[in-house]
Amino acid sequence: MSEAKVYERDARHLLVVDDDDRIRDLLKEYLTRARFRVTAASDAAQARRLIELLDFDLVVLDVMMPGEDGLSFTRTLRNRAGAAGRTPVLMLTARGESGDRIAGLTAGADDYLPKPFEPQELLLRIESILRRAGSRPSTNRILAMGACAFDLERGELTRDGEVIRLTEAEVSLLRQLAASAHDAVDRMDLARENADATGRAVDVQVTRLRRKIEPDPKNPRYLQTVRGVGYRLAPDL
Question: Using CA atoms, how far apart are residues 233 and 237, in angstroms rounded to an integer?
């Protein structure tokens, strides 16, 4: 793989949306190994919150999901103004009939890949879509938390302008909480996205993040515990 190709993939941010935990995790792992930046969502509602916060170069979207399906989500996305409404969409579905492909393309998808599929074909289709779409300017979004600021696109936390080191798990957790800023997020939903069956790893990450963000970690202002539910990120307005 050439250095140019690696750099190009490193700069591309993909959103994977699938309600099947196993498939979602496999897609995220494979595409991350292919040197893309990958964020995952388990349903259309979570995907919509992430799109409000982050810029994506492409959405890899399951069609058959409980609640809002991929077709409806794509139609809604295409009705958005600005760059977000033009985000390319690659649909994945277990239904590969011509009528289903037509429905997906009519809804606004850029391509349609039936399941099961070869990972290499998925990668080639993604690269083809990205080539056609060209580059898109980044509009980084920053969450302010007192003396700290979190750059959602870069996954970078600073305090008074100085970078504070975060682990990959901590970046992922902050992004998940930011997607529902000021709302409580179920602890086990956070754990599920981090392959943490017990939720204990999430608790450890929250404790570490409080030490990095909070003026008084024992009385958190920004990374709050919601008893009986989980956690809430409350950045400055």
Answer: 12
Say what the pLDDT of residue 55 is.
86
Give kind and range of the element (H or E) at residue 121: helix 119-133
* Domain 3-133 in CATH 1.10.20.10: no
**In the structure, what pLDDT confidence band is assigned to residue 73 with cuts at 50, 70 and 90?**
very high
Span(s) in the chain for CATH 3.40.50.2300: 3-133
CA dist 166 → 6, 38, 49, 152, 169 (Å): 23, 17, 23, 13, 8
Cα distance between residue 208 and residue 116, in whole Å = 40
- Please indicate whether residue 134 or residue 73 has the higher confidence score (pLDDT): 73
Burial 195-214 (b: 16+ CB within 10 A, else e): ebeebebbbebbebbbeebb
Which pTM value belongs to this model? 0.66
Architecture of the domain made up of 142-233: Orthogonal Bundle (1.10)
DSSP E strand boundaries for the chain: 13-17, 37-41, 58-62, 89-93, 111-114, 142-145, 148-151, 156-159, 162-164, 185-186, 223-226, 230-233
Distance CA 141, CA 151 (A): 6
Q: What is the pLDDT of residues 139-162, one digit of tens each?
A: 567 899 999 999 888 889 999 989
pLDDT tens by residue, 156-202: 999 998 999 999 889 989 988 988 888 898 998 888 766 667 788 89
Q: Where in the chain is CATH 1.10.10.10? A: 142-233
